């Protein structure tokens, strides 16, 4: 059986019907209410459908409310400004980002304008080749007709922000200090972590147990977004609620700086992080993935 998103998610499930039924399979769309021993989905008409897990053929998580393509583009624009690498260049509606190869987000081209087309791929390949970097494309769903499967499939999850009480145990700094970097445990230079375009960035720490990064940027539609990233809990301190406390403090920080919504970008296989953010009120907005521009052929376009 395909893996299920957290209970409370909106899903589309294809499942097998009893032998001899025509057609042999059907679909149900609704809110996932239980996953064991039966999968229970409540549909929009308040009907309840129960499906044995063994009969499930495919599962797809859906956004809680319909999301327009323009909303995906606007959020991705704010997210690109929040993690822009150390060098940026616009080319025919694409934002090209480079940062010496540190992190996929900071070293990929993302289509952010209606003018973005696949005709720009040769120029994108050349731009990255000049920097001795692989020409990765960050492709949000529905923005370009590219069928290649790609890698690092990611859920972009969002929530609304409200004012929250400060947590005195969580500290904020404008730059990551040595203790923050030691807890983060990733080889990413400070200049990549602190980079932001037309926004504000902060580094949160909960003693020596957990760290995270927040960045507030504004989308073209005027929405001020808080992006939470680089959340990491020291192995000795896991399963004690530290990531939740840290993220809640970052949500409060973002609200204080005028952000009305927040987003996270989570790899689809990171079930623990998806559950954490789901419990914090985040829900699926859209998906994106990375595709090597050199791998594209007429069959994948």
Task: Provide an overview of this structure.
The protein has helices spanning 69-82, 121-129, 178-184, 190-193, 242-256, 271-279, and strands at 10-16, 25-34, 39-42, 48-51, 56-62, 87-91, 94-98, 108-111, 136-140, 151-160, 170-173, 200-206, 210-218, 224-233, 261-267, 283-292. The protein is of the alpha+beta class and 301 residues long. The strands form 2 sheets. An 11-stranded mixed sheet has the order 6-7-8-9-16-10-15-14-13-12-11, sandwiched between helices. β8 (108-111), α2 and β9 (136-140) form a beta-alpha-beta unit. The model has no long low-confidence stretch (mean pLDDT 94). Residues 156-297 form the N-acetyltransferase domain.
Any descriptors?
301 residues, alpha+beta, SH3 type barrels, Aminopeptidase, 3 domains, 5-stranded antiparallel sheet, 16 strands, Acyl_CoA_acyltransferase, GNAT family N-acetyltransferase, SH3_Rv0428c, Rv0428c-like_C
Q: Brief description of this entry?
A:
By secondary structure, this protein is α+β, with helices and mostly antiparallel strands. Helices cover 19% and strands 36% of the residues.
């Amino acid at each position: 059986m395909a893996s299920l998103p957290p209970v409370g998610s909106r899903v589309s499930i294809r499942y097998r019907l009893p032998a001899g039924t025509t057609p042999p399979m059907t679909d149900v769309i609704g809110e996932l209410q239980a996953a064991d021993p039966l999968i229970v989905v409540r549909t929009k008409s308040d009907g309840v459908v129960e499906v044995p897990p063994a009969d499930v053929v495919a599962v797809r998580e859906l956004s809680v409310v319909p999301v327009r393509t323009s909303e995906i583009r606007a959020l991705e624009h704010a997210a690109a400004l929040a993690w822009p690498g150390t060098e940026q260049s616009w080319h025919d509606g694409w934002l090209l980002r480079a940062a010496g190869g540190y992190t996929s987000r900071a070293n990929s081209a993302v289509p952010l304008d209606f003018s973005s087309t696949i005709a720009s791929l040769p120029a994108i390949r050349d731009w990255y080749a000049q920097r001795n970097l692989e020409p990765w494309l960050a492709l949000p769903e529905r923005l370009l007709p590219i069928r290649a499967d790609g890698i690092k499939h990611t859920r972009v999850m969002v929530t609304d922000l409200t004012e929250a009480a400060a947590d005195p145990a969580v500290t904020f700094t404008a730059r990551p200090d040595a203790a923050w970097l030691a807890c983060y445990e990733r080889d990413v230079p400070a200049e990549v972590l602190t980079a932001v375009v037309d926004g504000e960035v902060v580094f949160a720490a909960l003693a020596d147990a957990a760290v995270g990064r927040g960045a507030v940027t504004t989308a073209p539609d005027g929405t001020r977004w808080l992006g939470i990233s680089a959340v990491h809990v020291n192995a000795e301190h896991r399963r004690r609620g530290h990531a939740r406390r840290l993220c809640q403090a970052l949500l409060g920080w973002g609200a204080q700086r005028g952000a009305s919504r927040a987003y996270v970008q989570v790899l689809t296989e990171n079930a623990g992080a998806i559950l954490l953010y789901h419990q914090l009120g985040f829900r699926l907005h859209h998906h994106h993935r990375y595709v090597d521009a050199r791998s594209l052929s007429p069959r994948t376009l």
